[in-house]
């Protein structure tokens, strides 16, 4: 496992802290316009994902990519998590990974 360039677990609340850096997020795809997808994040906010291939609407997708702005990221890799995903647990992981237990995740 390559640990030289770790990815930070984020949701849109945390994304502004990491613009220009590699991050990891999960979204439920709600709209597709070519390679630009709009999704609902684990903290119920809208997130724009660029460079994501065609995936079915309402599918949860894990994305690793570069945070381009406070509301968008450019996908480098992605994983289809299907239609059932525990968004509350992932959101809690984001909070822990950027808070008290940050050292365990980076």
Question: In terms of per-residue confidence, which ranges show pLDDT below 50 for 5 or more consecutive residues?
Answer: none
Largest sheet: 5 strands, mixed, barrel
The helical percent reads 10-25%
First-to-last CA distance: 13 Å
- How would you classify the helix and strand content by structural class? mainly beta
Number of strands: 6
- Principal-axis shape equals globular
* Tally of helical segments: 2
Please report which band the strand proportion falls in: under 5%, 5-15%, 15-25%, 25-35%, 35-45% or over 45%: 35-45%
Strand order of the largest sheet: 2-3-4-6-5
Sequence of secondary-structure elements: EEEEEEHH
The gyration radius over C-alpha positions equals: 13 Å
What is the typical, i.e. mean, pLDDT? 89
Account of the protein in words:
The model has no long low-confidence stretch (mean pLDDT 89). By secondary structure, the chain is mainly β. The protein has a five-stranded mixed barrel with strand order 2-3-4-6-5. The protein has two helices and six strands; from the N terminus they run E-E-E-E-E-E-H-H.
Briefly say what this structure is.
By secondary structure, the protein is mainly β. It contains 2 helices and 6 strands.
List key phrases describing it.
2 helices, 42% strand, 106 residues, 5-stranded mixed barrel, mainly beta
SSE inventory with pairings:
Layout: E1 8-9, E2 22-33, E3 36-41, E4 46-50, E5 60-67, E6 72-82, H1 87-97, H2 102-105
Parallel strand pairs: 1-2, 4-6
Antiparallel strand pairs: 2-3, 2-5, 3-4, 5-6
């Amino acid at each position: 496992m390559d640990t030289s360039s770790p990815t930070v677990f984020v949701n849109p609340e945390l994304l502004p802290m990491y613009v220009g850096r590699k991050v990891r997020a999960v979204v439920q795809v709600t709209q597709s316009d070519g390679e630009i997808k709009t999704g609902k994040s684990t903290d119920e906010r809208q997130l724009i994902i660029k460079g994501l291939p065609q995936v079915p609407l309402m599918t949860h997708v894990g994305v690793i990519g570069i945070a381009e702005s406070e509301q968008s990221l450019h996908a480098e890799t992605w994983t289809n998590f299907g239609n059932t995903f525990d968004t509350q647990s992932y959101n809690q992981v984001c909070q822990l990974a950027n808070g008290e237990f940050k050292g365990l995740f980076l």
